[in-house]
Amino acid sequence: MEPSKEGCSRLLIKLTKDQKIISRVACVGPHTQMPAVWAITSIVRKEKIDCQSSLLGSLIPACEDHHQEKEWGSFLEFLQKYERAAVSKLGLHEVYILPCSKDSKRGFATVLYKEKVPNLSPSQKCDALEIVSFETSSPPKIIAGEAAMSNSDLCDRISPEQRYPEVNGGYSCDLKPKEQSRSSDRNFVVAHPSYLKTLGQAHSCWIFGAIAELVDNSRDAKATKLEVAISMIYSKISGKDIPMLSVIDDGRGMSHTDIYRMISFGHGQSEADDPDHIGRYGIGFKTGAMRLGKDALVLTQTANSRSIAFLSQSLNEGKDNLEIPIVSYRRIGQCMEVDTSVHNEDSAKYNLKTIKRFSPFDKYLIGEKTGIFKENGTGTQIYIWNLDEWGSAYSLQWEAGMAGGSSFHHGGIFIRSKRIRSRPGQMSHTVPLDYSLKSYLEVIFLDPRMKIYVQGALVKSRPLAKSLNKTVVENGKVLGKSIQLTLGRSQLEWEQANCGIFLYWHGRLIEAYKRVGSIIHNGDCGRGIIGVIDVTPLMDDSNGQVWVHNNKQGFQDCEAYAELENWLGKKVDEYLDKYVDKIQVTKGNTQYKPDHEWVQCDKCRKWRMLSSDFDSKTLPLEWFCFMKPFNGRCEIPEEEVGSGLITISTKRNGYNIKEPSESRNSLPEKATSQSEEICDGKLSEPEEDDVRLSKRQRTRPTRSCYDEKSNETEEDDDELLAFMRVRSRLPRSCKKS
Known about the structure:
- The chain has about 725 residues and is of the alpha+beta class.
- It is built from 21 helices and 28 strands.
- The strands form 6 sheets. It has a 9-stranded mixed β-sheet. A 7-stranded mixed barrel has the order 2-3-5-8-7-6-4. Strands 22-23-26-24-25 form a 5-stranded mixed β-sheet.
- The protein is elongated and about 90 Å long.
């Protein structure tokens, strides 16, 4: 507060309503300390104002931009036209803002105030009002020259500390003199537009983490279908076609309150802990969108409302405070009209005009996008442009694909650098999950139910726990909390020389290919071994602490995570000792088939178990429960994953068991019988005779070698005949029968 030459004081105040700034104004003549922000809580008729209210001073516009000038004018025009007064509650006081009379100069307002009296009798209330009036000093005189001072003159005569009081600390909502206690002082801050760039750095290491934030929001909204695509759109600002990323779902949409929370910088966690809900911190959309591009537009619709929000670095460039335009509509009959309960029509028109000016969207394109919702449809559409750049190109690389083509002609979205993420013990350079969006979305959810399309092509979900060979389910406790680990061998990961544990939290992949135990130091030891575990009970503390990074791409360094690593290492080593080291399959063309084939119904989204010898690739793209080979109904419950069988193929290239002439080149029947026992899940220890036989077979040459060496000694021929008799011997099971 600064005294004027005439003895009056001035203070810059931000006048708000519904948490939106109307204008910055200068309060001329306050005799006590004032808060930096006045929030209008209600509008009342003039006749309802207490006649004993004291004069506090006048408000002079000190607008920061053209928008505030327009809002201030509309605010005063409304009060004057309908003879109303705006009420702002400041602690134990109420402030009334009244427009000047029609004859006086427009643009200024008068301020009255009174102290709110607690529940007292009528006589006590009158006495209290008299005391307040008595203790209040006489109203200051408003000098005409002071009221006629321009905004520029006012700004020049006020120090920076008073020009932006919310930065330097405002006063509490108490109109008591400065000498009294200020124990309830409150501080306010300004969000500078550069903060948007800072938010985007949360996913600076891996850009797919930003897309995952948007996918999480769709899953939390109970969407059944999600489309992610990059297409070209004309930008009137750039004067050329630019790429634009779109994320469209058919979820329940967001109301004005919901979308306001989404663009706010964080929010409190919900009291009810939904195990299927991923969002926790309230910053996912902002960190994801600002990593992908500079500008993002959100179009959302519920059954009764529609909202548009614009989060833009281009709009806020050069500004001192962050502006996020929102336009909300409500359904009236069959039409959507401006929701005047959250903003007036002038504000909605200004925000919509701003969106059209700084984005590629005009009224026709907005109308086209709202048509995606169809009649009474719900969902959310996110459009991001001015995408992140990689040198002279973009960080994301995309292929449109060919309509009607095979799976090899489908498009996709990739990270241009195609670099492999750094992991301890990582040796393979073939990790599509790190640079292919389709590969990442195949395994992003532990229990995939939502249909996801990338560049128009359906992503075939790959539930890892249901696609393993030699499956083992391990149950245990870490820090007293129960966890379950599914271990097995994956043919796809074996071919790509990958291995490790996939850690999920609330059904969402947080860390992939985590190596533990002996596979950290031996790259080929656990080749193809994959583990799947849901660590939600362990990483959600009972005190409300969540041990997951806010970018959802890793875990914090904590006791729970350290103990989990030790437990996983022991279980992986036990699995290797029991199932891998004892069965050394050295034949070429080995296939590790899943214990069971699984297929997902396109109607109920349940996974159906098929026999292990069934080829799921022969099924149509759209498959339903009533089709072969399931031949059931959608009402049938989904089967659970259990410990599987050990299935190892022993067929070699060029080998045909149907040819009798090649029977001598076939495997010993004892080995075949043992292979059949392995396929039945009965793996027994080899007997002593079998060990000697195995050693003798490994030390003897093949039949072709004997044919080529026809001049060998007679002793060698006898050994050959003895060896052939051993190979043609019947298996033990046949002799017993």
